[in-house]
Amino acid sequence: MDTELKAIVETLSRPEIKDFALRLDIKYQIKNAEESIKARKEGNDIYMKKEHTDEDHKMILYYYNKSIAYAPSESEELMYAYSNRAYLLLHINKYNEAIESLDKALQLSDSITMKVKLYCQKAKCLAALGCSMKDVVMKEIDQILKKSKLSTEEANFVTDIIRKTKLSMSSMKQFKPQNEKFLQEKAECNQIINDRENVDPLDFVEIKSTKNMGRGLYAKTDFKTGDLVLVEKPCMIGPHFFNQYVFCSQCLSVAWTGIPCEACHDYMFCSLKCKNMAWEEYHQIDCSITPYLILCDPEIPEWIDLNLKFIITLMKDSKTIDELKSKLNITKNNQGKFN
After folding, report:
1. Helical segments of 129-241, H only
2. Are the C-beta atoms of residues 246 and 261 closer than 8 Å to each other?
3. 223, 229 in Cβ contact below 8 A?
4. What's the pTM value of the predicted model, to 2 decimals?
5. What whole-number distance in Å separates Cα of residue 8 and Cα of residue 105?
6. Exposed/middle/buried for 42, CB within 10 Å: 0-12, 13-18, 19+?
7. Which of 14, 259, 268, 336 is most buried by its number of CB atoms within 10 A?
8. Taking 90 as the threshold, does the pLDDT of residue 171 lie above it?
9. Can you tell me the distance from the alpha carbon of 87 to that of 114, in angstroms, rounded to the nearest whole number?
10. Spatial contact of 101 and 85, defined as CB atoms under 8 Å apart
11. What is the pLDDT of residues 94-120, one digit of tens each?
């Protein structure tokens, strides 16, 4: 494994790359407002179709999450990307997830008309969930308008939005998930798996050789049909690069409320928990390495992230990761910089 480490460090130590590292702050260069806008428009093109399939919803999520991943921090592009994703989530009845995206968009919005639109969408979500907080949100809109000076055109625009929102909420029935039983069974299954992961599998099975069957895995206790025998974690998992913005890079859950890496645009996480786990396990390394590899070869294949993830995981297991981190001068939540 020292060979791989040496190769990476030697590549990153090339004079032209050191010079590049000194001249540019990589983490801002690899965010790209134009790419964010392009991805959002591609998602919009599918969203505007009269009818959607499940595959359409997947592709819309892909493009909106990609737009979020590419958008510079605190930018207007990021606000619009979160807003558009919220509209998709509301459209497919994922109201709690939509509220999460709407709140992020609201934090980034400076426009009064945009804030009103976002608050109205949030009120719709709360109404669908049967939550009385919808009235609080509508009062918040009133407070915003009282403090604002809008042109006649803007005032008419937001008044119309509010009118349509109230009309929509008055006829809205409380949403009842149709897959509650499935979700409950899934949660129970996940709990069983989590419980078993914390138990030594050799309490239930053993590896041994017998005269008739040879070497194999044998039960040490009786199992009933449907019992979970053992849980074996894969060495590494990750979404195919065609789906890198649809599924969590850490656990492969659908990233309905995907959280991007602040530095790069290659990873999407379903939660802060997964994001932090990925950072500690491998992403603090590959997030620093990838920009330099792209500098060396702009045509670098898209699956390089998975390869890097695999190498880093192996190096970590072999306890050579600290040396690599030292070479890159990596600290928590910061990209590597050369000394």
Report:
1. 133-146, 152-170, 180-197
2. no
3. yes
4. 0.76
5. 39
6. middle
7. 268
8. no
9. 13
10. yes
11. 999 999 999 999 999 999 999 999 999
Alpha-carbon distances, residue 209 vs 212, 213, 219, 263, 339 (angstroms): 9, 7, 13, 52, 55
Tens digit of each residue's pLDDT (9 = 90 or more) over 39-62: 999 999 999 998 999 999 999 999
Asked if residues 112 and 156 have their Cβ atoms less than 8 Å apart, the reply is no
Note the pLDDT tens digit of each residue in 246-302. Answer: 999 998 999 999 999 988 888 999 999 999 999 988 888 888 777 777 666 666 666
Angle (CA) 313-287-73 rounded to 5° is: 145
Structure tokens at 132: 């009385």
Contact criterion met (CB below 8 Å) for 309 and 236: yes
Per DSSP, the residues of 135-160 read HHHHHHHHHHHHT----HHHHHHHHH
Name the phi and psi angles at 226, rounded to 5: 95, -10
Give CA 41 to chain center in angstroms.
Answer: 20
Around Cβ 238, how many Cβ atoms within 10 Å? 21
